[in-house]
């Protein structure tokens, strides 16, 4: 059996940081549009901001499929020996929860858009095929799911960042370096 790599592959690193940038940008735009444009905002401006949010967020659907395939075919580096077995288990569970949320969040966003009678655009290039007709009953279900998932995802991402920084500055181990240092595919 071959030893696990010391670093994530360059492809895994690019996918990680690209998805982080997309997620954080889409999250901030969604937060802004949902919390600061609710009342008294010009409808066209709010629509433009929400359209921007959707165009930025929908590529995550494609990237997460690539990332999961890449992760399945390229093992992640081992966690430090200094981590306890329960902490390693928690780290693995949280990573898979992040993957699940990165699938569920754009899917619920698409269903929110479609149920409200709007498209789900991708990078201003094309719209995802509409899978459901406008339906206020479905919208009443998927909207809060999308909002609560986004808050949960935001908290997980903040925790993920703090954990990486803890590993780097307090534990002084290789966890953060494995996602930032030179690697080969």
Automatic annotation (TrEMBL):
Gene3D superfamilies: Transmembrane di-heme cytochromes, Chain C. InterPro entries: Cyt_b561_bac/Ni-Hgenase, Cytochrome_b561_oxidase, Di-haem_cyt_TM. The chain crosses the membrane at residues 12-32, 52-70, 90-114, 145-165. It is a multi-pass membrane protein. One of its GO terms (biological process) is respiratory electron transport chain. Its cofactor is heme b. Pfam families: Ni_hydr_CYTB. It is found in: Cell membrane. Keywords: Cell membrane, Electron transport, Heme, Iron, Membrane, Metal-binding, Transmembrane, Transmembrane helix, Transport. One of its GO terms (molecular function) is electron transfer activity. GO terms for cellular component: plasma membrane. Residues 8-181 form the Cytochrome b561 bacterial/Ni-hydrogenase domain. Belongs to the cytochrome b561 family. This is Cytochrome b561 bacterial/Ni-hydrogenase domain-containing protein. The lineage of its organism: Bacteria, Pseudomonadati, Pseudomonadota, Gammaproteobacteria, Moraxellales.
């Amino acid at each position: 059996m071959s030893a696990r790599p010391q670093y994530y592959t360059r492809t895994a690193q690019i996918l990680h940081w690209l998805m982080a940038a997309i997620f954080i940008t889409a999250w901030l735009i969604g937060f802004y549009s949902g919390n600061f444009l609710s009342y008294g905002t010009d409808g066209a401006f709010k629509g433009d901001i929400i359209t921007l949010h959707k165009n930025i967020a929908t590529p995550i659907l494609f990237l997460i499929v690539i990332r999961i395939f890449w992760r399945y075919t390229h093992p992640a580096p081992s966690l430090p020996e200094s981590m306890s077995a329960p902490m390693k288990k928690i780290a693995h569970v949280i990573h898979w929860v992040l993957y699940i949320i990165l699938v569920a969040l754009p899917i619920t966003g698409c269903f929110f858009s479609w149920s409200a009678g709007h498209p789900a655009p991708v990078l201003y290039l094309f719209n995802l095929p509409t899978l459901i007709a406008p339906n206020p009953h479905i919208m009443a279900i998927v909207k809060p799911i999308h909002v609560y998932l986004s808050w949960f995802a935001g908290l997980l991402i903040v925790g993920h960042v703090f954990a990486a920084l803890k590993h780097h500055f307090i534990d002084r181990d290789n966890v953060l370096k494995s996602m930032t240092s030179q690697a080969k595919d």
